[in-house]
Amino acid sequence: MITTAKRLDTVEEYYFSSKLREVRQLMSEGKSIINMGIGSPDLSPSKAVIEAVAAAIQDENGHGYQSYQGLPEMRQAMADFYRDQFGVEVNPNNEILPLMGSKEGIMHISLAFLNEGDHVLIPNPGYPTYTSVTNLVQAVPVYYDLKEENGWEPDFEALEKLDLSKVKIMWLGYPHMPTGARGSLALFEKLVAFAKKHNILLINDNPYSFVLNDNPMSLLQVEGAKEVALELNSLSKTFNMAGWRVGMVLGNAEIIDAVLKVKSNMDSGMFYGIQKGAIAALKCDKSWFEDQNKIYRRRRELTEKLAEKLNCKVYKEGVGLFVWAKLPEGIESAEKFIDEILYQKHIFITPGTIFGSNGEGYIRFSLCVKEEKVQEAIDRF
């Protein structure tokens, strides 16, 4: 009998992978499920993006292997985007590495910098992949608390009390997933100072900056951040290109080169046509963001009504692609709460517990649901 690697004992199947099977089963039984669980944009990329890809497919030179670092013009478009949107200057030749989605960057960075037994600071609540990848590379997750009473920001006094001697990486993501907390430049300055003090590689996962957020920020805006920090970003949410798998990691040349050593052994370059589409997306003007946010704003207003229908208290300060809400007093299990709604009302909502123990008592709604469907969900109650 062929046995699996021991590292698989440290992880479970991704929650949405297993839960969506359950949802599909209900749908096959004729249940009309409204999926408000997963943040997969249902809107389309811009016309310019589609046209760029269509034209690229006709290019006879566009079907071979591509550079591990992507087209020079795509790296330049990414650098221009960061300059125009964040005021951050990066060298497109060696301070940007395009990725097939920012999620793979989590693995590449971990493989590049973590040895067995190294410690990794992970937000609780936070994106579950930080934990699963840390376990897969046989490093040790060390959770730091984010709590509502602290605005879903780190408690630096508590951080300093941790044993940081083995910590190699610290993950963060603002705007925060799942809560939608915005973060601030003042917070980023504290985090950079903390990382420098303790010789920690700081990584900001930043795919939600432009969704319902009037003040997009980058960790790299902080002076000296490149010395200790990387930033991941993605075209998935900003440009409705989730299935295209286009992301990027930005930072100083030495750190980016280490990530490239891993990546170049993992794939053979991104399809030419997708790169051309990404270039077109990154050149969109501010009207693109305004039009997208008009749609998301209406959806958020309706989703907040749904949450209030469930007697939940919405975190109103949140931005990004989700609505984070606190369950009514007396509800002991977020997972039991959402399962009852799934089976009784046929609406799928994400329990906060999948993001960590501090997510107990909360649920998360995705805004990737058309207005009429959100209204239908409200009407079911």
From TrEMBL:
Named cofactor requirement(s): pyridoxal 5'-phosphate
Pfam families reported in the protein's UniProt record: Aminotran_1_2
Keyword annotations from UniProtKB, A to Z: Aminotransferase, Transferase
Start and end residues of each Aminotransferase class I/classII large domain: 32-381
Top-level enzyme category: transferase
Its EC number(s): 2.6.1.-
Keyword Transferase part of the UniProt annotation: yes
One GO molecular-function entry: transaminase activity
Family: Belongs to the class-I pyridoxal-phosphate-dependent aminotransferase family.
The name this protein goes by in its record: Aminotransferase
Species per Swiss-Prot/TrEMBL record: Flavobacterium chungbukense
Lineage start: Bacteria, Pseudomonadati, Bacteroidota, Flavobacteriia, Flavobacteriales
